[in-house]
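From the shared-data thread, chain only:
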Amino acid sequence: MKLLDGRVALVTGASHGIGRAVAKMYADSGAYVLALSRSHDTLHETVDDISRRGGRADAIIADLADPSAANDLAARILQQVGKLDILVANAAMLGPMARLAETDGAAWEEVFNLNLHGNFRLVKALDPLLQESDAGRAIFVSSGVARTCKAGWGAYAASKAALEALAKIYANETIDTNLRVNVVDPGRVRTAMRAAAYPYEHPMTLPAPEDMTGVFLELASPQCAHHGETLKA
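Structure, as tokens:
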């Protein structure tokens, strides 16, 4: 028996990078994966790869920056698979790398709309399903810059700091339930976002996304005891 047999997991931003690696690892561990992204072609590559590996997955095309994207998400999940046990809130955008005074206000709002508000809308829509699970799990993907607040990281760092606050609030609200809420800081990892942020860094000096999925499996496990924590991959 595999660790996540019988579990249903929704992984956002599953068309590439960390999201794709986690979706594949969860499927390998027995979960039925709902892979969500706004990118149709690359998302289906994730689902097809899971199927070739003998796993089970469906694609959900949705742009979480759209305020209405999560409105019918719970109903869609119930219709497709009947329940939800695990949420991995991974979808995010980097936005402008610039000093605050030089950052365009519309660009700032765009980053917050996905990185923070999109995840708030996910919690609002999916909390009833996660609470109904005998071992609900909500895992939010953050970044070290949420705490170091590096100069020039502006909207991304501020939105990830706010996301960590959102996750801690959610953890405190659910402390007496079967739901476990945690944050993952993946650290240095070979992704397109990392390459955009550090264009002079050689990507092959970094671990691949598949190398840091272990913490996501630990936090998704029905035996997980972590709650309200930020764990490094």
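The chain has one domain: 8-232.
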